[in-house]
Amino acid sequence: MACPVQFLCRGLRTVGLVLLYYVFSIGITFYNKWLMKDFHYPLFMTLVHLAINFCLSALTRRAMQGWTGKPRIILSWTDYLRKVAPTALATALDIGLSNWSFLFITISLYTMTKSSAVLFILFFSLVFKLEEPNPFLILVVLLISSGLFMFTFESTQFNLEGFTMVLLASFLGGIRWTLTQVLMQKAELGLQNPIDTMYHLQPLMFLGLFPLFLYNEGLSLSTSEKLFRVTELSPLLYSVFTLSIGGSLAFGLGFSEFLLVSRTSSLTLSISGIFKEVCTLLLAAALMGDKMGMLNWLGFAICLCGISLHVGLKTYYSKNKGPSLRKLNSKSPELELPLLRKEDERDDWAAEYNDEDEELEISLH
Predict the structure, then answer these.
(1) Exposed, middle or buried: residue 11 (CB in 10 Å: 0-12, 13-18, 19+)?
(2) pLDDT on residue 265
(3) What is the pLDDT of residue 58?
(4) At a CB cut-off of 8 Å and minimum separation 6, what does 228 contact?
């Protein structure tokens, strides 16, 4: 039996990982919204983020390979184009439209509308038979959809164009996370480690989003004094610097999610995501001046009830089912983080996780 000191250490570790996840997740939301006030090229910004993510994930893979001495997985062109491309395209459009919407809507409306992604994830999980049909899912759908309707009803800061973009991004997000789960659970591909998944997704995401960027922003950006027609060096360096910060935050978000799931569980990430949305709305009202009435807050509360019910149902049914191919074992070396451990901590790490027999389910957060 673990002593109180071990429980305290695990608790502090979990709190620290959750706070790290909050910093990157909430930080990139507010940062992108702030950046869009002066830099009106969200698709180009997304392309820069993808390029930075690819470089950082490549460096991380190289460091992990040097630490473990084992070569990282590299997919064949056939598997890469046939099995990774659909996930990459859905992910690119999801992120691109989400960033694009910041030109039109508030952070609170964005946060609330993106919560509807749970509905689309449920739908596509049923289509791909990743979820089993359950009557309680109807209640989850009703709670989330009615909460979203109440939140947007008579909203003084409602923008139809931005709302449509986020709703479409949520729809694509349902496809994205469902395909990502399928992709990471195919053992023959060897993409169980999210860093490897990020590395393989970024190039195709870049290529998938680039035509939309050329059509919508290419001509405007080429004649803009923000980048290509600068008369002084300082504005160019400022633009590059601000875009690089956003790319680093995007990579930090993906890595912090991986860190939180691998060191705790996907349930912790899901519950943390619920409270993160509450924090985001409170900060949006306090810092950005987002206006929300009583009906809007009530709709938000109802939506959170639906998301909480969904998390609870997944937890209940996963505990009553045996191990399946849809789960990753938390003892897998692919989920260990050697870069974050000192040499003398390896034995403590192994002893701690030998006592744990919980299966780690891939999060559809």
Answers:
(1) exposed
(2) 61
(3) 93
(4) 221, 222
Pairwise CA distance, residues 111 & 281, whole Å: 7
Q: How many whole angstroms separate alpha carbon 171 and alpha carbon 176?
A: 9
Distances (CA, A) of 200 to 21, 53, 174, 197, 203: 23, 11, 20, 5, 7
Q: What is the mean pLDDT of each run of 10 residues along the chain (365 residues)?
A: 72 84 90 88 92 93 89 86 89 90 86 77 74 76 79 69 88 81 73 82 93 89 76 82 92 81 64 78 81 80 81 70 43 39 42 41 40
Is the whole-model pTM more than 0.70? Answer: yes
